[in-house]
Amino acid sequence: MEQWVCIPCGYVYDPAVGDPDGGIAPGTSFENIPDDWVCPVCGMDKTSFELMS
C-alpha cells in the first residue's frame, strides 16, 4: 500500500498501521480516510500530505 507524508511535519501515514488513536483502522488506504481527518502530529488536513515516491 502507498504511504503518504505530511509535508509540514514529516509524519508518514502507513496504511498497514492506520491511525488507531485517530479512529483509522489498520488497512485503511489514504483515499478512504475521512476528509475531516488531520495529521496526528501537527493537525494539518489531508491536503497537506503527498504520496511518497
How is this structure best summarized?
With 53 residues, the protein is mainly beta.
Please, could you describe this protein's structure?
The chain is mostly beta strands and 53 residues long. Helices cover 0% and strands 15% of the residues. The chain contains no helices and three strands. The protein has strands at residues 4-6, 12-13, 49-51. Strands 2-1-3 form a three-stranded antiparallel β-sheet, with no helix packed on it. A hairpin with a 5-residue loop joins strand 1 and strand 2 (12-13). It starts with a strand and ends with a strand. The model has no long low-confidence stretch (mean pLDDT 97).
Task: Please render the helix and strand layout as text.
Elements: E1 4-6, E2 12-13, E3 49-51
Antiparallel strand pairs: 1-2, 1-3
